[in-house]
Each structure stands twice: as C-alpha cells, then as structure tokens.
Amino acid sequence: MNNFDVVIIGGGTAGLMLARELGNFKRKTLVLDRKDNLLEFSFNTLGSFINVDDFDLSKDVIAQKISDLVFQSKRVKREIPTNNLFVLDKKKVHEELIEAIDNQYVTIKTNIHIKTILKDTLGNFTSIKDKNNVEYFGNIIVDASGTNGVISKNVGLREKKVQLATGVEYNVEYLGDPNKMYLLSGKDYQGGYGWIFPLKNKRAIIGFGTFNDAVVKKLKPQLNKVLELPLIKKLVKKDNDNVEGGSIPITPVLEKFVIKNLVCVGDSVSQVNPIVGEGYKFIFEAAIMASKAINKSLEKDNIEFLNEYELEWKNRFSENYKRSKKAQEKVFKYTNNDFVMDFALLSMRIRSNERIIRSVSGEYGLENK
C-alpha cells in the first residue's frame, strides 16, 4: 500500500537530508524523484561555509579546503583568510546521505513525475498523484522539489514564475594556489559575477552566473570570453568543452513554508541564502528543523506543531536573509560597473576580515555575539 507517515517530493539536497532525519525518527517515509539517477547534477561542486561534522558528514565530501577567499574586480584584489570555507563534492555529499538513510523506514522511488495534489473537505492534503495516476498517501506531504516548486507554486507559497540566476562552468586545469577561491566582479561579468573553485590534482571549476535574461542566452560564449582575460589566463587553462549549468531562484525572502499538513523545504521556497547563492548549509539546517516539527506533529497527532518549523527558521535566518537580499540587490545593480566595483573592494579595507567573512557567509547575526 502507498500509505506513509511522510511523502517527500524530491530526492535532492533537502529531500535526502529530511529523509535521513525522519528515518532516524523511525517514521515511515517515501521519497519520490523525477530523475532516474539521484547522483546526476547540473553542478558537481559548490563553495560552502560549513562544518560537515554538524551534519554528520565525513571529510570525504570536501573536494578542497580553502585558506583564502579572493575578491577580484578589474583593478583591485582583496584576500581574506578563512578557516571554514570549503569546496564540496556534491556527488559524495549525496552518496553519504543516501547511505545513511534507514531503508527499514524510508523508501526511495525514482522516475516519478508528480501530476497533482489532493485535499479532503477540510483542506488537508491527503495524497499526490503521478502522471500514471498512481496515488501516494501521506499524513504529511513535503515539497522538496527544488526550483520546480511542484507543489509550493500551485498552493501560492511561491510565485509560479520567478526570476532565476543562471550560471555555467567548466572543470579546468588550475595554475593558481590550490587553497585560494576567487569571486570575480566587474563589467566582464555583465551584471553577474564569476568564480574559481579550486579542486585537488591541479584542477578547478571556473564559472560565470547572471540574472540578466539577455545574457543568460549567451552564457557559454560569455564564459569563453572571460577565459581569455589576462588575469584569468594566469589562473586557469581550459582543456575541455564540457560545460555544466543550473539556476537558483531570485525571490523575495520567504517566511511561510507550511499550509495545513503541507511542508516545503529548500529551493521550493527559496531557502538558498541570497548573498552568494550558498545553499547546502542553510537547506540542511532547514531540513533538520522541519524533521523535528514533523516528528512532533506525528507524535502528538496535531499538525499545528508543524508551525514550529516556520518559527525556528524565522528566528534563525529571517533577519540574515533580509540583509543578504539587500546585499544581493546591490551586487546586481553595481557589478556591471568596473569603477564602482573597484571602489567597493577598496572600501572593504575599513572592515575587518572577520566581519567580511560573516557577511559573505550570510551569518550577519554572529557579529553581535
């Protein structure tokens, strides 16, 4: 029978972390994902200010530890030492999450395309149907479907059409310091920014992302132009034409994630921190918060306890996200101007390294602790 305590739509970052935690609570959980392979990604690496121990992940998920974060505009460079910045291997992160899931309680089904969600006369969500009209029943339904927002868009928690920041990247030979990560800004990045994430074995990821729809249509040619810049040629050497790409939503900071017995986690409700699109650490935390509220709701047989997830998220993240959103808007507004970005980096010299790292990591609230 397709009856579960919890049905999760999406087997990505949020869905797998939530499933792992619900398995630990011994909750009968079903994870449905539209992909055939949960270990195929549009991007294979990401930069994150994360302590992997906090999320019961091993050091094997770290592709490279970063000692310095380098901000580079047209003519100005600012290097900030850091001890909590890492490049993560997404495949290994997800492999570890899948391996840690208790299969006695959690079932994962792939190649499932969700068609609709059904309600009872009281407005509670009872089940979801896939494109083959197979019905899956859950006491609690979770949308963890990422930017698709399979359910969150339909119930009004997220706009059906949202602005996206889209990026492309290459895995290239790296000529620079393997412990330095670069964030690149200026006119060459056409209203977005670039990045260089070092990997092991003298490799690196170089990418370029923007929210400008006109530029999105020619991202790969523009990234190829970036690779010809003298500064970039000193750091990387393109030796293949295999491009990766993906998008994250550019939306207002959301604080509503629960309707009745429907819970939304991750990109389905835009839980990526706006400042640099850092997602994993924040989405992991949100998934753990949601798991506790879901478990308590099932334990008490009262869906009102699901609102504790919203409250905990708001207390932990809301003010930081609002500040990050303002910073994001400034980046989008001014990064297309070399003079302004040069000036911005020069003005950073009056701020301490610690304060800059807290701002970039989205952890503003720590400044006053």
What's the gist of this structure?
This protein is 29% helix and 30% strand. By secondary structure, it is of the alpha/beta class. The longest helix has 28 residues, at 307-334.
Uncertain runs are: none
Beta-strand percent range = 25-35%
Order of helices and strands: EHEEEEHEEEEEEEEHHHEEEEHHHH
What is the number of helices? Answer: 9
Helix content: 25-40%
Shape: elongated
Main pleated-sheet profile = 9 strands, mixed
Q: Would you tell me the overall average pLDDT?
A: 90
The helix/strand class is alpha/beta
Strand tally is: 17
What does this structure look like?
The chain is of the alpha/beta class. Helices cover 29% and strands 30% of the residues. Strands 3, 4, 5, 10, 11, 12, 13, 14 and 15 form a nine-stranded mixed sheet that branches. Helix 6 runs antiparallel to helix 7 (307-334). The longest helix has 28 residues, at 307-334. The N and C termini lie far apart (51 Å).
Task: Please outline the helices and strands.
Elements (H helix, E strand, L loop, with lengths): L2 E7 L3 H12 L4 E4 L12 E5 L12 E11 L4 E13 H11 L5 E4 L4 E6 L5 E6 L4 E9 L19 E12 L5 E5 L8 E6 L4 E8 L2 H4 L2 H8 L3 H4 L2 E2 L5 E8 L7 E2 L2 E3 L15 H21 L6 H28 L3 H10 L5 H9 L8
Parallel strand pairs: 1-2, 1-9, 2-6, 4-11, 9-17
Antiparallel strand pairs: 3-5, 4-5, 7-8, 8-9, 10-13, 10-14, 10-15, 11-12, 12-13, 16-17
Helix pairs in contact: 1-2, 1-6, 6-7
